[in-house]
Amino acid sequence: MMPITHVRVTNNNDFTISDRFDGDPYIFLPGKSTLLPVAAAATIFGFMGGETTSGVEFQITPDWAHVQRRYGWNILQQRKDEDIVEAVARMTANAKKWCDNITLEPVTMALREVKPTDEELPPPREVQQEVLPPIQYESEPEVQPGPVEITRAGPPKMGVSKA
Q1: CA angle 101, 67, 23 (to 5 degrees)
Q2: CB contact at 8 A, 10 and 105
Q3: Strand partners, 9
Q4: Longest dimension (CA), the chain
Q5: Residue 58 and residue 52: Cα distance in Å, rounded?
Q6: What is this structure's pTM?
Q7: DSSP letter string over the chain?
Q8: Which of 23, 52, 105, 159 has the greatest CB tally within 10 Å of its CB?
């Protein structure tokens, strides 16, 4: 069995989820699938992997508590005139619903070398170098050799002025 190389993430929520991994943004649009490398998906969705003899095998079992913390879905926002127990129940129900609407599917991609034969190769391209004429200016500025005066502007002097 070949190892999993990517994870297809489908966001079935009615809002966009965005995240970053290794400087790359990942945007999960509502109702759309996004393909992520395993390392990015493992960081974003918190599942673990282990070494095996056939390569790296990952279990696609996300840590939904990690996902809730990562996106702030476990932050209690109590509404006016709402009991704390009701607020916790509402937050927990919303977070569970949002996590249930995200599906992860393992994807295996394989790259293999294909050795071409001579008859399968296309003929080589003929590259013609185009030589551009030099740019002609109406008049070239005269450069006068000689000493150059260098002036340095410093910060303004602070203090009492003598006027």
Answers
A1: 110
A2: yes
A3: 34, 104
A4: 91
A5: 10
A6: 0.57
A7: -PPP-EEEEEE-SSS-EEEEETTEEEEE-BT-EEEEEHHHHHHHH---EEEETTEEEE-----HHHHHHHHTTT---PPTT--HHHHHHHHHHHHHHHHHTEEEEEE-------PPPGGGSPPPPPP-PPPPPPPPPS-PPP---S--------PPPPS----
A8: 105
Residue type, 12: N
